[in-house]
Design goal:
This protein is 39% helix and 29% strand. It is of the alpha+beta class. The strands form six sheets. A six-stranded antiparallel barrel has the order 13-22-25-24-23-26. Helix 6 packs parallel to helix 10.
């Protein structure tokens, strides 16, 4: 194939022979197409056409280029370009690929495959070096008098001689990829040289978009940064000092950037093969805003050194040349290197907060450096302690003052006005049901009872006389007087029975001491004694208003009474009353609790300290929540 003369292959009685045709210049149409092919498909078609023109008697050709290890062909070309039936030729190609050998078989080539179609000789040759199969070439030879004009084996050898051009394709592809990578690296270095001259972020952003617009032949390049609210904010547009009066355009560009950021991938409109699955609604809207039918839009995301997204770049072209795969790869490479620089500039342009963070970072770096082992050990110890306090949980207990009260408390009061005659008990004494606590002077009551008894007897005698004389009017009057006298007599007897004040049940005298008041007058209803049972108590817990939200009915706890601090008693909260008591400058809630274990040493009125179990919480929270809540309240009070 590299000789200037075209080789004609013929057939004679002695076997295949070479017929050398007159020399054909290398600038023939087939050679020019092979030399000027713009892509691999055009190159493969030019190679197949050149082979088919150089070998006599070829009706049609088929070339299938495959990548090693791939089931589907990468490039498939046919010659001639007009539509003819190549079904039989395709079958021969598949057979040669499967068997890895030369296949010669009869077949039909033409606009149809009817039986009337003349039979051709089909030759399929696997091409490649060693065990690597790079392509399969197949041709259909015309037959005359039952045999082709050129021997199939000779055609196969000619195709193998020309296979070197196809074997170069992978190396050319690698060379192009290497050249593309070199060009990308050079573009990135040039961009870094441009933005490195700018000390401030705004200048760097403007210089970056202007350089990218020129380098990638874009009509507009925009840079957006993700704000604290998660929305992309426009920071620079190429060849524009300000964009305050371009609200609609800026909104559409920011929407396109957010579309790329939300999907965390590059987006192109019209779509490229690598971006076909991406959503391009905002990019299509931006392209339609330009009102140019051939406008194209592309966006790539910017990532910081830690992998977090910080912004996006949007490229726009208004010409008829859309973005291709190479431009997208170059834009991604530039964005991958530009992202950490942008993140560094953003951190450097922060004021006090940024500097404090940087200083803390420097201190942390010094802490984890190769020196000062004692500081490292101390820091590790403090860190372990903080982690333990943060993650290790303990029982949160609400501490509050408490006082023991009798669950039931009865008062012994004076039943009538009188004088104290005797007082046999006082506060602290234990009494039984029916025991006499005190007695009032009943001398006047005895006289009153005798008076009304004599009055009743007199009236009864008068009634008898009236009955004997049949004085009906006097009988009726005397009956009412008799009933009145009997009532007064009953009242006097009732007072006499209540002159002795008795214990209503077994218990202990909580209050009351009349031993020093014998003979003293008392008023009706005055409390003389208070008695409480000895086996039924309730504990009143005074919980501070800051801690009342942590307690609930049914929670358990313990109480240590002042009389027996070494013997804590278990308790269960039974009632939370919405009543506050102001005491010692604090507001406390009155909460009732039941003691589940009673002791003989208990007495009403005992005070102590109760601790209520309020659930598991981290130790650091248990120790600091009161301070934090106080600071929050102070901040709420004084801050506007």
């Amino acid at each position: 194939m590299l000789e200037p003369d075209r080789i004609r292959l013929g057939h004679s009685d002695q076997g295949p022979e070479f017929r050398v045709a007159p020399a054909e210049p290398f600038n023939s149409p087939q050679w020019r197409e092979l030399s000027n092919a713009g892509n691999e498909t055009a190159f493969c078609f030019a190679w197949l056409a050149l082979q088919c023109h150089q070998i006599s008697g070829i009706m049609a050709g088929l070339l299938v280029v495959r990548d090693p290890g791939q089931d589907t062909p990468r490039i498939t070309v046919r010659w001639p370009e007009r539509e003819i039936d190549l079904v039989d030729l395709s079958r021969v190609v598949e057979r040669a690929h499967f068997e890895r050998r030369l296949v010669i078989a009869p077949g039909r080539i033409g606009p149809d495959t009817s039986p009337a179609q003349p039979v051709s000789t089909l030759v399929a040759v696997p091409l490649g070096a060693g065990s690597q199969l790079s392509a399969i070439a197949a041709v259909a030879l015309t037959t005359s008098h039952g045999s082709p004009p050129v021997a199939p084996q000779t055609v196969a050898d000619q195709l193998r001689w020309g296979a070197g051009w196809l074997e170069v394709l992978p190396w050319v592809r690698r060379l192009n990829d290497a050249a593309s990578s070199t060009a990308q690296a050079a573009a990135c270095l040039d961009l870094f040289a441009v933005i490195g001259e700018q000390p401030r972020f705004r200048g760097m952003a403007i210089a970056a978009v202007n350089d990218l617009a020129t380098r990638l032949r874009c009509d507009r390049v925009s840079l957006g940064i993700i704000g604290r609210n998660g929305m992309v904010k426009m920071r620079a547009i190429s060849h524009s000092a300000t964009f305050k009066n371009q609200g609609r355009l800026v909104d559409n560009i920011e929407n396109a950037m957010e579309e790329a950021v939300d999907q965390s991938r590059p987006i192109a409109y019209p779509p490229l093969p690598s971006t076909e699955r991406a959503i391009t609604i905002a990019h299509r809207a931006l392209a339609e805003l330009v009102k140019t039918p051939s406008a194209s839009v592309m966006s790539v995301v910017l990532a910081d050194s830690d992998g977090g997204l910080i912004g996006a770049l949007t490229f726009e072209r208004f010409s008829t040349v859309p973005f291709d795969k190479g431009v997208l790869q170059l834009a991604e490479a530039i964005a991958a290197l530009l992202g950490p620089v942008v993140g560094l500039q953003l951190r450097a342009n922060r004021l006090v907060a940024g500097r404090i963070v940087d200083r803390l970072g420097d201190g942390l770096l010094a802490l984890i450096g190769p020196r000062r082992s004692s500081v490292k050990l101390g820091a590790v110890g403090v860190l372990v302690l903080l982690l333990a306090l943060t993650f290790v949980k303990g029982e949160h207990r609400v501490t509050a003052k408490s006082v023991l009260e009798a669950e039931v408390q009865r008062a012994a009061v004076a039943p009538f006005e009188g004088f104290i005659r005797t007082a046999s008990v006082r506060a602290g004494d234990t009494v039984h049901n029916g025991d006499i606590l005190a007695a009032l002077d009943d001398h006047d009551l005895v006289l009153d009872r005798l008076k009304w008894r004599a009055e009743r007897d007199k009236l009864v005698q008068k009634q008898h006389d009236a009955l004997a004389k049949h004085e009906r009017t006097n009988i009726v009057v005397l009956e009412s007087q008799i009933r009145q006298a009997q009532s007064q007599l009953a009242l006097a007897e009732e007072k006499l029975s209540r002159a002795q004040i008795k214990a209503p049940f077994d218990g202990i005298v909580v209050s009351g001491d009349l031993s020093q008041m014998l003979g003293s007058p008392v008023e009706k209803g005055k409390t003389l004694f208070e008695i409480a049972p000895v086996d039924s108590y309730r504990l009143i817990v005074q919980v501070d208003e800051h801690d009342v939200r942590y307690v609930a009915v049914g929670q358990n706890g313990t109480v240590a009474l002042a009389g027996a601090p070494g013997k804590p008693l278990p308790l269960v909260l039974s009632k939370i009353t919405p009543v506050t008591v102001a005491e010692e400058g604090q507001n406390t809630y009155r909460i009732e609790a039941r003691l589940t274990d009673l002791g003989p040493h208990l007495r009403p009125g005992m005070e102590g300290i109760a601790k209520i179990q309020a659930g598991q919480q981290p130790l650091v929270w248990i120790w600091t929540h009161r301070v934090i809540e106080t600071l929050r309240l102070a901040a709420w009070k004084y801050l506007p």
